[in-house]
Amino acid sequence: MTRMKSKWLVLFIVFGLILTACGGSSDDAAEEVVVEEEPAETLDAPATTAAAAEPEEPAAKVCLVLDIGGLGDQGFNDMAYDGYNKALADFNVEGTFLEPDEGGENRGELLDLCAADGNDLVIGNGFLFAGAITEAAANHPDVNFAITDETFVQGENIRSMVFAEEQGSYLVGVAAALKTTSNVVGFVGGVDIPLIHAFEAGFIQGVRSVNPDITIISKYASVPPDFSGFNDPVKGKEIALAMYEEGADIVYHAAGGTGIGVCQATAEASAGGEKVWCIGVDTDQITTIGSAFPETQEYFLSSMLKQVDVAVYNAIRDVVNGDFGSGSDGGPAVIRENLASGGIDISYTGGYIDDIKDSIEAARADIISGAVTVSRERP
Amino acid sequence: MNKLTIFLREKYLVITPILLIISIAQLEQYSQLTTSGTFGAALRLSIPILLAGLGGLFSERTGIVNIGLEGMMIMGTWFTAWGGVLYGPWYGILFGLAGGALFGLIHAVATVSFQVDHIVSGVAINILAVGAGRFFNILAFDDYEYASSTASPIVEGEIGRITLPFISGGEINGSPTSNILGSLEEQNIILLSDIAGLLYGVTSNISYFSIISLLMIPGSIYLLWRTPLGLQMRSVGEFPSGSESLGVNVYLMKYTGVIISGALAGLAGAYLVLEGPSVYLEGQTNGRGFIGLASLLFGNYRPFGIFLGAGLFGFADALQLRSEESIHGLLIVIFLFMFILTARNIYQRNIRSGVLSGLVGLAFFVWFNNSTTIPIQFVYFTPHLTTLIVLSFASQKFRMPKSVGKPYKKGELS
Prior knowledge:
By secondary structure, chain A is an alpha/beta fold.
């Protein structure tokens, strides 16, 4: 009897181990993406066929570590991944990308793993990497690191790529103010942190610049240390529904995956009466969320574009070309993307704001020329 | 009439806060407290918690602690997306049920057959489910567009919604009917409009899935308290060796309980997917399984109590998402309620409790009087805080199943 039982126990343990092994490996295992020779290129240029047949030594090895939310957030992480893929296609680069576990606790380990694996460039996508990347950069002084959205890091081998989100948000604020008929607009933030405050601040200033009497309702999905607000569409939907009920007819979100719920609420609120709008963020979300969730497509007034893909692409390009550069005084090299550099923009896809294009372009010119300065601090 | 007085005397701890909330809601800035929108959101937010709580009920009633509800819920979300992407949303629900039940089975094998510590097994399931979700997702959706390791493709098709005709203005054959509750709500009559708001919120634009979920409450009451199977299941949670001596198959009952538990948690996951973004996302459950477990305690291991607990949490959550001002209004409710408690305690010569509740009430009064808003951290914490406060002040007698959490070996006297 007992022997029977122990046999079963062993079987069960083995079964459990296999399952956990699978789960574990998917948690931190790399999904290797090795560049393959493009057949089109070899066809067009027969001369290179011989070279392509023998695998070339890659010019550089890069590693991209995404942040919580991961691939499929139709925004920030997907963009970084796009830029990385584009660089892999354009340059002779070997690439690896990793996603952290659910809570993102293993960021540091993933960075170390990449650095120890002989990569020339390790990119941490998101400000939450700040602590981990400073540490990893100190441990691996001969490896280049790059981080998005954060300058508060230490290490000459780090490039930080930051964006003037407030400028783009100002432009969509102008668009919202010109398009609203109810004079109430909403803002949904993911997590109540300074980075997202910059979106809100820019949006408020943009709206106020057109009409100071417009009411702006703001709400965040969660407060730190709870970062679930970047990935909780259920909450995003309820927040946005409440805003539309309160009379808002345009809601701008800067909430990662939570934004999916926001724009689904837009479609739902529109079904019950007058057409209302949502404004996307990071990517041109009429083509990302709009394609993945077709029922939301016609409700995207515009999107604030934060071209993380360009920054990631440029970082990889610079490593390949050998002009990655370094910061002085022990600090990081800082790349600032804004309206002037083109890293921040507003989307006209869908054609819903074509009629007010002149006003928006005037606001853009004002910001670029310095006639208007947009603050990152909320008024 | 006598019955009513007895009812009021017994339940005034529940009734007074509700009346207080209704009175506060008459003030313009706190009107969100009782609108139909708030109640509709509260219902949508509480259903996953309710289902998880009911899941916990079935498990714990048969004597198995199920801290793995969260993990089973995660499996529910993934399997729902899988079934939904392949065959449509209704099959998604079935897949979700099965996925949750599968992990329920794992928990049952570990805890019933191998007498593994219930907590250890439950925690293991929670950890396993997160990894398994990502693993399965990569495995199943590798070739799909818009899918990744942490998100599934979209589930096409909808479950469908209904608005009650005549009472809430639903359509019959495409023609609109009268909307009695909706117009009552707009009248702003004390009490009447608030109750109309509540009823309108839960009868208009309600998903069939919500109705199915709510039917699980009478369903569980019937199964556990009105059928021989339910009696056997409950007896196993109270006194397993006694049940066995009467011919009950203890292991089978425990297996049944835990598998139903997993299936209900899976259903909760299905709700999150199909009534949420229609995709599986990693971390979508956000700890709702644990809140479900709390609602089980709150509800004193009874289905309707679980509904109340889940509803309270959902209501507080809806409030904090919809209107931060009305959270400030809740402070009034708290200090008035504390003063009523003080009066009761002093009347009952329970001086020490009276002074204590009086002081707490005074503190809240001072807080309310000297502030116009609530610190943002408290706002987000409101649902948890409310549940905590109500739990500690509702001096109910907890009556958990006697042998819950104890390992049971066949043929041994427990």
